[in-house]
């Protein structure tokens, strides 16, 4: 497995002490063989990607002599709300299209699908926003993203996942608006699947660190297996 991340993103502080998103552009493409994402302390990040890839290979999906290239577009702590990041024509959505195009130009690769795991930012962002407005906003943004991606790369499978159940229990109205929007968009666009987070634990439920948003390491591993099963079902249609 390799990661393709030619334009790494990072958070810095601006002169007013606010978080700001910057793009670091190295002079050449970055291909990391058997890469494992790590946090600032050098510890491996919990991710659904390794178990998705393990399931893909174990199931005989990878032809002899081939490799899997993960095109990394995700940036922690971002969303559709904050400083125009993922909306139509905005910085990170445009970057996702760019890096996908560049990755496909590296050889004879085939784009197998998109794994989209996002929405927590919209659950907790803009507290002044009503739930109906929140749902409509997320519906529009996710629909436009899928439309724009498929306009360039065809009707590829799109797999989208649900947030933590603990977050939904503690923030029911905001959560329902976002995850209902996700389900409805996935149903509407076709060749797409929504992955349930039923029975999966957040970090606080496993290690009592106060983090309701992010899944525990083991739950992320299970989520990766569920993403694979959802993708597999789509690939058979």
Notable characteristics:
3-stranded mixed sheet, globular, 3-stranded parallel sheet, 237 residues, 8 helices, alpha/beta, 42% helix
Brief summary of the model shown:
Helix content is 42%, strand content 13%. With 237 residues, it is of the alpha/beta class.
What this model shows, in words?
This protein is of the alpha/beta class. Helix content is 42%, strand content 13%. It is built from eight helices and eight strands, in the order ββββαβαβααβααβαα. A three-stranded mixed β-sheet has the order 4-1-5, covered by helices on one side. Helix 1 packs across helix 8 and helix 4 runs parallel beside helix 6. The chain is globular and about 50 Å long. The chain starts with a strand and ends with a helix.
SSE blueprint:
Layout: E1 2-4, E2 9-13, E3 19-23, E4 31-33, H1 49-58, E5 69-71, H2 91-104, E6 114-116, H3 120-124, H4 131-153, E7 158-161, H5 165-170, H6 172-189, E8 192-195, H7 203-207, H8 217-235
Parallel strand pairs: 1-5, 6-7, 7-8
Antiparallel strand pairs: 1-4, 2-3
Helix pairs in contact: 1-8, 4-6
